[in-house]
Amino acid sequence: MTVCIIGAxxxxxxxxxxxxxxxxxxxxxxxxxxxGVAPEAVEHLLVSNMASGEFEGQTGIMNALAHxxxxxxxxxxxxDQTSASGGAGIYSxxxxxxxxxxxxxxxxxxxxxxxxxxxxxxxxxxxITHPVEYKHGLTLPSFAGLTARRYLHRYDAPRESLxxxxxxxxxxxIDNPHAQFRKEITVEEAMESPIVAxxxxxxxxxxxxxxxxxLLFCPEEVAKEYAxxxxxxxxxxxxxxxxxxxxxxxxxxMGGVRESSQQAYEQGxxxxxxxxxxxxxxxxxxxEFLQLEDLGFVEKGRAWKATEEGRTERDxxxxxxxxxxxxxxxxxxxxxxxxxVYELVGQLLGTAGPRGVDAEVxxxxxxxxFGNCVTTTIVEGT
Amino acid sequence: MTVCIIGAxxxxxxxxxxxxxxxxxxxxxxxxxxxGVAPEAVEHLLVSNMASGEFEGQTGIMNALAHxxxxxxxxxxxxDQTSASGGAGIYSxxxxxxxxxxxxxxxxxxxxxxxxxxxxxxxxxxxITHPVEYKHGLTLPSFAGLTARRYLHRYDAPRESLxxxxxxxxxxxIDNPHAQFRKEITVEEAMESPIVAxxxxxxxxxxxxxxxxxLLFCPEEVAKEYAxxxxxxxxxxxxxxxxxxxxxxxxxxMGGVRESSQQAYEQGxxxxxxxxxxxxxxxxxxxEFLQLEDLGFVEKGRAWKATEEGRTERDxxxxxxxxxxxxxxxxxxxxxxxxxVYELVGQLLGTAGPRGVDAEVxxxxxxxxFGNCVTTTIVEGT
Lengths: 382, 382
Description:
The structure is a homodimer. Chain A is built from 15 helices and 11 strands. Chain A is an alpha/beta fold.
């Protein structure tokens, strides 16, 4: 069974004056409209969302969305894999179609966060990891700082190479009308921004964001009825790494990225050399380096060099985060993994506008926690 | 592909001096031990849980559990369908196996609630439904009261018939070593207990509970390698009803129960007349009546009569909630749907001890919200 994507949408990301239900309904209804699929045809609805209860005091949002979009009596379920909830939703949507349980599955990912203070939001996010770590201040940004320091030292990489990730992703975001920050930044600005977790500075971090994105999945024979052009899910995989981050053998390697991408490569019959464009989980700039290496795109310890050489820019041989990435586009937790594949669909179908590149195979890597669980999705054109 | 269950376990339900991670690990490790499956063989881990973030300030519990049980690098995901999270986990586990994504999926459902006040717990639970209702006091118990009043009036049923549901389920719970309340109650006691939502009284409601339950799924050819006796998942379905409860056409019918059971019956090639034993979602006594009718076990308006005639007792022709049901066993939200099927596995394999009945086909109905989303699972012996 080949699982296809026949519709994709995303809302504007940023500070939105809308609650979670409105954000989800906006992306969901646009996705249905664009694909020409009637609400009654949807059999399963999956909602990727980490924490609507914690952020908004509202649970049951998948039932609400089924109601709001007129999908009843479609089955509805919320999928949580923390910051990789979107990727987990894609994996679940794939399973729903491939198992025959559904012939039309709508996946909507979303999160509303900006109405809470940064302290409140990071409290919820910190609780993804083990209390033995976060209760002593080892939150995700702290891990990122420690990892960055280790990486720069081990591979003799200049601090500026991390800044170049931010500069590149901001440059891409300028051409994404849905991005939270559509603003050019320079290496100098990034290097002078306030320190958050030494050696990482403000511009090494993605923002807190509201937003939603949606994808519509069905078997290929159904896709042909609805669309002349669609995208195939060639491979998808997911894997965990130690929940206690300090128990990992190598602090500059993400086991979940390696394992989940291996599954996706094998299923799709592709290797890293076949990937034309990729959306990586640049919650922190250092994560783009780790993923470039652990996905097999470049040798271990060489991501900083590939970045400095411009290979990951839009006109390079390995364009990364043409959407602007989490860094410039924003990171509404449950939406991010879905929005990654929204970008790939645009690239494969040639509808990405000024940020388009020539691509037949795309890869998305969505990281939960600090690599605690990772999903990788490979999509291909028809 | 036939999906089978080769392991089942549950913890003691009740007020537990353990946090959510310990509860999940207790059920998960016992399930693996009993089935003789090594942790490394598990490919997917699903955790059915509604609100660990809201109840305990802890997220990422699926990653923590994968770590605690030694399952790495198994994929991990949290499944939320409010009070039907367990049933949704079963549906998702079925999809993971039937799609070929996993050859061994461990499902662990659990919730810790008793450390919060009843007011705090019911606040979280109230937010399952639409704010247009719960902000005006129409919480789940209120809906149950209104529905009960309507039912008793419409079908000229005596108030005592509802009490008999509680009496029966308590009688069954006495023989369940894991039940929260192992205590006989009488119709008189139930009728004299304090009013909660008129005409429903305290003994018409399930308690607030801590607990966890687990099931292990695999394809039949794998099941044969591990177990001489196992259970097949014959059918599973899920469906939504209106999120705003007052928009439903008939207040004494649950559309999600009808639709989800129809799917499960069709998939399994069974009808209601083939079901030998069932676990229904008796969060409120009135719900057992609605499910008895909407599942097709008895004619509309006749569940109260069937109950008064003793047909749903353990020695009746349609034994319901041999486990004690949510009423006596307890209702740790994410665990309940999983524990329902734990009970059915025991009934089909003949390991239910003194509460055993003669059964080849069992059905579990797990209700989310006030019927906002419902899953039905049918299992059969080999």
